[in-house]
Amino acid sequence: MNFLRVASAILLLAGATACADTFPSTAPNQEDVVSAPEFILTGGSGSASPLRTRLFPDMCLDVPESIYANGRLLISWSCNLGANQQFLWKSTGEIVPSAKQTMCVDAYTGLGRDGDPIGIWACNGGANQRWTATAAGEIKGIGGKCIGLTSAIRANGTKLTLQTCNASTTQKWDNGGTTPPPPPPPLPPGIAITPSQSIQALVNANPAGTTFILKAGTHLRRTVIPKTGDRFIGEPGAVLDGQGVTTFAFTKGNPPYPSNVTIRSLKITGYAPAVQSGAIDAGGPNTSYGTSGWVIDNNEISYNGEYGIRIGNTTQVTNNNVHHNKRLNIGGVGNNTIVASNEIAFGNYLKAFGINFEAGGTKFVATNGLILRNNYVHENVGAGLWLDNDNINAIIEGNRIDRNGTEGIQIEVSYKTTIRNNTITNNGFADPMNRYGWAWNAGVGVHGSPDVEVYGNTLVSNNMGIVGVQQNRGSGTYGPHIVQNLYVHDNTITQTVGSSGAAQDVGSDAIFTSRNNRWVHNTYHVPSTNRTPFVWKGWTTWALWRSYAQDLTGTLTP
Fold it and tell me: How high is the mean pLDDT of the chain?
């Protein structure tokens, strides 16, 4: 489920037709022959049609909420014949929504990278807006790469990315088949729960590993403590509403905590969790208090107090729309957790919490092996993606991070982290603390954290670029909190204002002279009005920046 669902572009995901290389020696009876769906993908026809995937023929490409705006991400959604699911494929190769033909299907960044989000953007003739249909049913674009689903699980709201073509049915489409799509597959067998029934009573009455189907309607003030292996799946229109008084929608209860719980396709709103807890509360103050293996998938989680989701260990948070939660949309402590393909927006929207402590889009603490991948993180009051205090071995990749109030990505008093192939735009211009004039509010800020590598990212129009900041932050679990071995390379940075580099307020030049912090082969686009686009022992010009042996193979252009 996507907040502000853009009008659905009907690119239908069509189920693959199985073929056999050999045939039985005896022909089957005529009544045993079942005709297979016919799939046809035609490019450049100039006529409007839905595009459906060959994986799920009842799913169409969709512009959520019919909002035709630059950067709106396309999703797959149940086909409904709406105008937002109709696309026109021009002879020029551009694919445009039939209801807004000045917008084009667009591979965001224009760099042709795996994981670049697929959305719509004002047509500009770019190579990232031109597509061809292959005989295999692929939509192939910039760099010879294909449009594909981010998940092979059938779910409304699944996003699309640019991918190396691999012949998968997640990359195959149909806009001209003669067989109408089948009805949606039925929900898995399970125990139906109507809004008038107690979810917890039915959980208590059934063994671990039971599947529960929450029927459409509003389930008021329900709290669930699952058993291990339980699955909770919502029918379309199933809502859990805490009405501002119920603490949790789902929580772990007392040890031993339930593991491998699935929560899918629900709208969860109006809960009032305890401080630093979530409406879905899978974790605790440290990893020993966390669950393991919870799957939180394809939900809309919004307008809850504190967090929308608190993670545990090996939690999978995927394909959710988490927005307008009072303190954070997602946060917590856990090992080997993945947060992928979510929309994370408008956290701390009431500005009720101080961003210097904890508020904004996300905040993760003391994680090991955290992966933040292919999320759309935007318009949070505070940081977008924030790792604070003893995180290690994190990977942050393929995210689109836009218009967050403070830093797009903030790595604070943590350790080894890889930040790669993200698109980071327009962050740092709405800091409630008004911290301007120094090295705060960057696209990527590395604060007192060693062994951080930043590469392959595109940064455009942030308050600051990529910045390392050294203050007196003491030590943590894995050593001193210092900026050391910061390796910033092969990024593209457009800076109309602000600077990239490093700064300190501890009275020591070690961050500049003896800690192996280096910028290599980055590309900068800087207007002549920005006279000091770097910071290194103070605000610095390009010539002085290079005199410090930074970016000797880099480039700077207007």
Answer: 90
pLDDT digits (tens, 9 = 90+) for 52-78: 988 888 889 999 988 999 999 999 988
Q: How many domains does one find in the chain?
A: 3
Neighbours of 432 (CB within 10 A): 16
| Same domain membership, residue 167 and residue 243 | no
- Residue 170 tokens, joined: 């997640």
Largest interatomic CA distance in the chain: 88
Which of 221, 178, 171 lies closest to 196 in space, CA to CA? 221
Residues 213, 216, 221, 226: what is their CA dihedral angle, to the nearest 10 degrees? 10
pLDDT digits (tens, 9 = 90+) for 7-26: 333 333 333 333 333 223 32
| One domain for residues 136 and 248 | no
Closest among 398, 392, 439, 426 to 411, alpha carbons compared: 392
Pick the closest to residue 79 from 138, 16, 1, 13 (CA basis).
Answer: 13
Dihedral Cα 539, 543, 545, 549, nearest 10 deg: -160
CA angle 337, 343, 346 (to 5 degrees): 110
Residue 168, by phi and psi: left (phi above 0), alpha (psi -120 to 50) or beta? beta
Q: Is residue 100 part of a domain?
A: yes
Tokens, residue 446: 């590395």
Q: 523 — alpha (psi -120 to 50), left (phi > 0) or beta? A: beta
Cα distance between residue 292 and residue 337, in whole Å? 9
Q: Are residues 410 and 277 part of one domain? A: no
Distance CA 311, CA 333 (A): 6
Encoded tokens for 94: 């551009």
Q: Which of 174, 204, 236 is the last residue of a domain?
A: 174
Q: Is residue 433 part of a domain?
A: yes
For tokens 């700064």, what's the residue? 503
Give me the domain span that covers residue 116.
12-17+37-174
Residue with tokens 């050294």: 470
User: Distance between CA atoms of 51 and 176, rounded to whole angstroms?
Assistant: 8
Residue 43 belongs to a domain with what CATH number? Answer: 2.80.10.50
Residues listed for the chain: 558
Give me 488's structure tokens: 């910033």
Q: Report, in angstroms and rounded to the nearest whole number, the Rg of the chain calculated over CA atoms.
A: 25
What is the four-CA torsion angle of 442, 444, 450, 451, rounded to 10 degrees?
-160
* Tens-digit pLDDT profile for residues 324-371: 999 999 999 999 999 999 999 999 999 999 998 999 999 999 999 999
Count of CA atoms in the C-beta half-sphere (13 A) of 10: 23
In a domain, 157, yes or no: yes
Residues 373 and 350 sit within 8 Å (Cβ to Cβ): no
Distance from C-alpha of 199 to C-alpha of 214, rounded to nearest angstrom: 9
**Mean pLDDT along residues 228-244:** 97
Q: Are residues 419 and 542 in the same domain?
A: yes
Quote the DSSP letter at residue 206.
Answer: S
Would you say residue 168 lies in a domain?
yes
